[in-house]
Specification:
By secondary structure, this protein is of the alpha/beta class. It has helices at about 5-15, 20-40, 45-55, 60-75, 80-100; strands at about 105-115, 115-120, 130-140, 140-145. The strands form two sheets. It has a two-stranded parallel sheet. A two-stranded parallel ribbon has the order 2-4.
Amino acid sequence: MDPITTAIIAGAAVALKDTAETAVKDSYQALKQALTRWFADKPEAQTVLQQIEQHPEDAKAQHSLEVIITTQQQTTPPQDDLRPLIAALVQALQQHSQSQDPQRIGVLIEALKTKDLKFGHVQPPQQTGIGVKMGTVKAESVTFDKVGSLGEP
């Protein structure tokens, strides 16, 4: 898969979530705007970009985007230099993925069902301010006591 298609798919998968960091959202939007200008006379490209945003995992939409980009590159070079936009998005995605790395989080719970859950004296590892990250938790009560951040005891 070409770098433009890969960047758009990865960016859409992360940037459009509520948990995405501002740098990811901004870099994705910058690349998307450049592509929108490049595809100004290609409504099918706009449609495929929308499909990718709605379902980044859709293999058919991914393939369609790759074909459109490859064809467009052969006939009309992009007006903007996409390389720095792709690099900025990739860097933002890498930083975002590092902040989501379970080894850099004090406590990571992806799914849990329990009656009571209590956290006490949780300190995040060095280089991160995240003490607790939870996915789906079903509990009658959840209690946090002394969950710290960097620089806090």
